[in-house]
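Aim 2, interim progress. The first record below pairs a target sequence with its structure tokens.
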Amino acid sequence: MPTLENGGGTTVLRRTVDSPPSRSLLTWLIGRPLQTADAPHQTIGRTVGLAVFASDALSSTAYATQEILVVLAAAGVAAFGLALPIAVAIVLLLAIVTISYEQTIHAYPGGGGAYIVARDNLGELPAQTAGAALLTDYILTVAVSISSGVAQIVSAFPAIAPYRVPLAVTMVLIIMLINLRGVKESGRAFAVPTYFFLASMVVTVGLGLLRSLTGTLGVVVDPPPLHVIEPVILITPFLLLHAFANGTTALTGVEAISNGITAFREPRSRNAGITLIWMSCILGSLFLGITYLAVHIGAVPSESETVISQLARTVFQGRDVVYLIVISATTVILIMAANTSFADFPRLSALHAGDGFLPRQLTYRGSRLVYSRGIVALAALASLLIIVFRASVTLLIPLYAIGVFLSFTLSQTGMARRWWKIGHLAPGEEIRERGSVLRPEGGWRLKLAVNGLGAVCTFAVMLIFAVTKFTQGAWVILLLVPILVTIFFAIHHHYRDLAHHLSLDDYAPQ
């Protein structure tokens, strides 16, 4: 029988049933359907938020150092000593980007990141460009992180190397299923592995630094052979910029928290901002520590054994149980890094769809109150990339990060324009935009300077990446983003044309 309840002036109709809904294969895989009223209870705190949104950024410490060494190897092993100064420069860039995005989080508590900032301050074309760049990058994040995780497994068990592609695709499907179960459940499932990885890396780096200070660390025993495709004689500025661009993959994922603010508990902005700072501090510390130790032990970048594997077996003096624990933790975090994309890609695609630039179906929530169509689409596209590029991190990296730094640039430029508009408001004046409300604020000049510096730095990195990686595959992204933007506007035109034909505004009954 239905019953009426009155709480807070709102009448709620509740119906009790004699039998629960029948179970099916779908409910067994992703769980029973949730009530729409349960949506506010599916939010997460800072601890789980770090696992959900920071796994991509934190996992990049497993391959960013290796990507720097891959480029420096062209000038010989002697050039590896330049890896640490390059890493320091990248951490300084990380600090600038973090401060910039921390301002974005508080200015746009509704989430959306670069897309919303560009839409409200720069116009639709920059907004769709930022969205296309981010959506592309989220797909690449899944492909790169899963492929890198499989590379860690291959390092420990070389016999499974021929099966790396089907293994990677299987992992994508598993993460898809976990995310289809809902934000809260997927967050809890991924929290333990994230902190397991952090603990294992803190122990590895900490012990490595201690042994380095006491002179007992030594060098890599039986390092893999160094293969250089295009050796150079001199260390040129182009080579250094190329290595810097490779290392900036450590910054991918920093924007994820600003896109997913709505997943956090209230106060959303404060929780998201604190989580961002936590993530950046951990990321910068681990990246510097791993790079220093990798140079110290003479690690060699190789497809057959990762730098993390060489570091772990040198620090722990062999491939014992502790080594296997570190490799397992690294593998898990690299696979989990894909979860950041599964958390943000569906939300961003839903924002695009809500504005009429992607199919409206992407705005629908599934039975577990997540954007299930976006999750499935991401899994399919990432699996296709893994198959085409044979799960090779080296082949996928040139496609990676350009989209991130393009969105960084547009976001920081948009925020700079926002502070400019705020600085020119009259006292008491208020402007309501789609994503936020503009009111006079103190210190707007400093905030403008911070975001302006962030825009200049990220734009410079994007240009460096585009030039140094152009012939290796970056041209694909430079071509793909305009194509996607054209498709977005074609979809938008279709929806506007359809709305015009269905409109009754000009209808005059005879």
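The second target in this work package is listed in the same format:
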Amino acid sequence: MRILALDASTDVCAVALGAAGHWRERAEKAGQRHSEMLLPMVRALLDDASLDLRDLDGIAFGAGPGSFTGLRIACGVAQGLALGAGLPLIGIATLEAMAQASYDRHGSERVIAALDARMQEVYIAAYQHEGHGWRATIEPVVTLPREAPIPPGGSWSAAGNGFAIYPVLGERFGTAVTACDATILPTATAIGVLALSRFAAGEGVAARDAAPLYVRHHVALTRAERAAGLSL
């Protein structure tokens, strides 16, 4: 089974192409240029592999949480590609992809993933590795760092820039966190790895049924919030 995976949930624009055990990935800092970069990166990756979209079995995308604009771009591009090629889609939670990235990099099996959500908040979730997948012990939420939910007992690995930007987050978990890699972000390869088993289980949906996972439903700033320098 070959799939394409996309992510634009952070300031990195990433695409991956592959199957179990073999992935090609392109990732670049995009700033606000995801809409310009994503399709050319997909085309370049397919050309490198001498493949066409119709040679694939499905498309996965980072559904969220993350940048509202980035999530809409990734979902919209994935929908357009899937519709044109008649492929199923799967949206993968970005925080779960971070847990997978931590597992791939460090072998972490109990992961608290935290992304900066701006507005002095974090997106956070906790996952435990079971069998060939992950079980969420805390589903993705948006919260003030000092009020982050604490997962059940035992030691945990921390992943994500939320821990670097808000040191109080690490203090909140105390000795429950035994390792931290604040450089981990959702990767297109991790999204692809997670999507493979779900496609194999028949969990793909039609392009029209795919949707981002926003978590926070505050999608616009007031004038006062913009004047204060806040951003979503």
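The chain has a mean pLDDT of 93. This observation will shape the mutagenesis plan for the next reporting period.
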